[in-house]
Specification:
Blueprint lengths: L5 H13 L3 E7 L6 E3 L9 E3 L6 E3 H4 L2 E5 L6
Antiparallel strand pairs: 1-2, 1-5, 3-4
Amino acid sequence: MKVFPFDDVLRKAEESRARGAVVHQQFNCHACGLKQTMDTPDTFYATGECEACGAITNIVEDGCNFLAHFRLPRR
């Protein structure tokens, strides 16, 4: 997964939230490279623990991305 600077991602995530999205922070484990998605919506963390290998990643230094869920209006 492509990652971007933490502050840039946080700004983009806030823009998406302002348009009604629910966002989940994502990062790549610095040890094993596995993509991780945070369980808690609309919350961004400075560090994250890999579910596969247990390593702690400094997300602020390594960068991150996010997943956005938008609800479409019913017709």
